[in-house]
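Internal ticket #5521
Category: modeling
Description: The requester needs a full-assembly model to guide mutagenesis choices. All entity lines are attached below as received. Residue total reported by intake: 682.
Assigned to: D.W.
Attached entities:
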Amino acid sequence: MPPVNLKRLAQELNLSIASVSRALQDSHEVSSQTKERVRALATALNYQPHAYASSLRRNLSKTIGVVIPKVANHFFALAINGIEEVARQSGFQVLISLTHDDYAREVSIIQHMKGGRVDGLLMSVASGTEDFAHIKSLRESNIPIVFFDRVCAEVSTAKVTTNDYESAFQATEHLIQAGCRRIAHLLISNNLSIGQFRQQGYRDALLAHGCDVDPTLILHGVMDNEQNVALIRDLLLRRPDIDGVFASVERLAISTYRVCKELGRTIPDDIKVIGFSNLEAASMLDPPLSTVTQPAYDIGREAAKILLRALEKKKAILPSQSQVLKSELFQRQSTAAAPAR
Amino acid sequence: MPPVNLKRLAQELNLSIASVSRALQDSHEVSSQTKERVRALATALNYQPHAYASSLRRNLSKTIGVVIPKVANHFFALAINGIEEVARQSGFQVLISLTHDDYAREVSIIQHMKGGRVDGLLMSVASGTEDFAHIKSLRESNIPIVFFDRVCAEVSTAKVTTNDYESAFQATEHLIQAGCRRIAHLLISNNLSIGQFRQQGYRDALLAHGCDVDPTLILHGVMDNEQNVALIRDLLLRRPDIDGVFASVERLAISTYRVCKELGRTIPDDIKVIGFSNLEAASMLDPPLSTVTQPAYDIGREAAKILLRALEKKKAILPSQSQVLKSELFQRQSTAAAPAR
């Protein structure tokens, strides 16, 4: 077999050496169809240009993958918009894959993404994920990754998050200042650092204000919303002294609204509710929902910027490029204090 | 150049002919790395097996693409869940790409998807799309497509839609029966058949009940929600006689709520509102929003079933496999008739 060089690629494809070279450099002078043929053959024959083997390989697809739990959540919908804005400016395509918060699906998606479909990944980890070997394996495949929101602490790369501990502390403090004494905390996952930070903020705010931390007031939600409604109903019936609810995810706040309506518990008079949420309609709910709102668009944008800079400059991503953005607390009627008597 | 056959592929790749053959048949006896090299070379050299060229090519990636306008819309979030349920059962991966209702982005995504990334496509057309050559070009690439919700009338394939004309007729009739006489219709796109069907249903319901069709009451929304709020504000200020709003998409109904709140117009006393929506929180809005709710999950599931059946049986998709599912009208307080005096 002759050696695999530009000349051989050109012969096999019946193209000029110059065209093959231009195609491999992604020149606009070459049709995308020709580029595809050249790249495919280069991959198939394991063509290695002198120094830039891995970086060229990286630049083959001009595609980034986004692996997230779900899209029926305004946080992720907005984060995707931020990601796509940055990707579009750099001429990158975005392919989105959903884990549905399921570990097995996440593993399968990562395997699939490794198959040369993407140059790099932006990822928010599934709440069901407890083992991170599949994510670590990306390094061997030379696929850089930036985490956003739900990060994997064990993988050394850049992470774009929000100040979850402080936000949860503030939300809980806000309920206490509005007069709540028995505050339930609803969360989804305990595995990820994000859930731990939020729960710790809740606990510390209670302690800072001289309230006990009662573990029976901490409810672990599940994937299915109907089941969550049943769990919250049980909690509120078993503990009629609950006068505040801090939901760590949007859909648990909405489920709490459903249960309160069903049980005839008035928000905010009987129970005050605050939740992490990017729901555009939060201010139009009955009553308007107080929220901790993450800068979702900016999170997506910053994460994409870090990844694309690394891909374009062929440089490694450093943990020191991590960013922590600030969430904002919006006080609305769902946490209004009773008027002074 | 020797002919491109199994033997030549085997020689070039330094593999046995049997391994190449197994790799092309996606056998589990061959490593995924080897499969990729074989497939890439087969593509690069335009290798054509005897009879099954296109169907074999189709079965290479076990991936379907979903091309939709956006995810910040509960209809699409639910439809994706239906699609993924079916895909998972068949062992297919799902890659999602968003057009943001932009024609140029849609063209670029289709080009990208044609590059061997997917075996077939499920698609809901961007509202900005007026030319369909990019979609028609999928046929030449042997990538089958099934449309759902927003279909392209000019492309002959299966389509899964809902009874948009009847639903729009019913929604408008519902407003008339609740006492409305000046009903505005808010829509996004005029290009797609879905928008035309809904507008026709609105017009015909007005005529059937002896009301005039006033074109100045038909508002064409845009992509940006803030701009839509301004447009709706202008409309309601210019036409204080408007007593009903029929929004053909969810976000225009939400924008109408915002404007009514801002202008101090009470829903349903001053203006009644109904909209197409899959918003889970519709019943928790202030007031609860009457909706036309599409069976989004089922739409996604049925569209995916048609596509996967075609891929697995290597058969063409026929327009006769199209399905029309029924939407449901939920009457809530936003369209409540004034109590009889």
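Resolution: model delivered.
Comment from assignee: Chain A has three domains: 6-49, 63-162+296-327, 164-294+329-335.
Ticket closed.
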